[in-house]
Predict the structure.
Amino acid sequence: MPRVAYVPFTGFRIREEEMLALGMSLPGLRQRAAAIAGLPALGVLTLAGMTPPHWECSYHEAARADDAIADRIAAERPTLVALSALTASVEEAYRFSAMLRSRGTRTVLGGLHATACPDEARLHCVAVVVGDGEPVWRDVLADAETDSLQPVYKAKAPFDLQQAPLPRFDLLGERTRPRFTVQTQRGCPFACEFCGASRLLGPYRLKPVQRIRDELDAIAARNPRPLIELADDNTFAGNRHPGALFEALDAVDARYFTEADWRIGEQPDVLAGLAASGCVQVLVGLESLVFRHPGMGQKEAELSRIMDALSAIQEAGVAVIGCFIVGCDGETRQSIEKLARFLDDCLLADVQLTVQTPFPGTALHRRLYREGRLLPDRGWSSHTLFDVTYRPDSMTVEELETAFRELVCSVFSPQPAMRRTSIRRTVWHNHPKLRPCASEPCSFT
């Protein structure tokens, strides 16, 4: 009987030593790192859901290229090992592939990085999947059975989410998972210059609500009243009325986190259903106070209007995590200090800070490459969202690194963190499913 081992490379990554030390010492960053590490890898579990029944499957999460895991997988004598990695972890995946191939095991790699850099990925694996994996996955497995794997598999058309399989959550074993991921759509109607996900896998598509219901029911069967992260780039950006999605989430009594843009604060039909359906937190990209990235479309607006919309979301009982990208063109030490003052005064329930990162395949990467600003000594493992990989236009690399560390210290030190905890409790006091305690109901951030 043929066997496939699914191996996602997961976890929170920071390369720069001083930033890593900060990340592990500041409670807010440490909690989010633990949350990310605990998320099951939805991509490979979805492919497992469409694996033919005569194949045996196993699932092995990996943070690093580890001999012990390689030995364990090789002992299963798999027909194929399916690797999945993002840019920051792809070099680990390459090393792990080499370990497996030295043990006589064939590997295939997919994901966003392999899609953006297929020629590079082919040097490290027997086969590469470019773009959506679902349309070609059965072909990959059939070729593996007959020892005729092709170097590259690429779908002829974007995958129709009406055909989305039920992820194989059973492969996670009996260990209790603190949270699960569900995808309600793929891509985003916008094309923000920095986004490494919205267009690489094809056009924006919605998953039918009945498919979402099936996934939620499968999760609830394992974990009653589950914590869920919606693996969407921008959940309410399309033209689907949110009512049916809200009903599906409410039916399993989920507490969930999602990502959306600020405009939901001006949409009464969304505001009315967010908290009532179990939404606890929503991450909103404010991006930068000094630079407006191309491709943002209708998300672009005056800061005062955006903040009014975010206030409306929090008044509805849902905590807003404001996401900011530091280091965009025009950024200076003074502008970063101004951002620190803004965050110290604003009423956001939480904050996420990242360094601008030119992921391969993005318009940002192409622009900085044309301008000769990519740092040749910063490889893919530095593309963590917390490490500088390019030359800023108004600061030196060292100045940006220092200013970002100082900003992180300022924003995530105990007193500001306690202030945001107090804001979250106030927000959740208005949440219909969290009253009357209004204490911390979950730890998404």
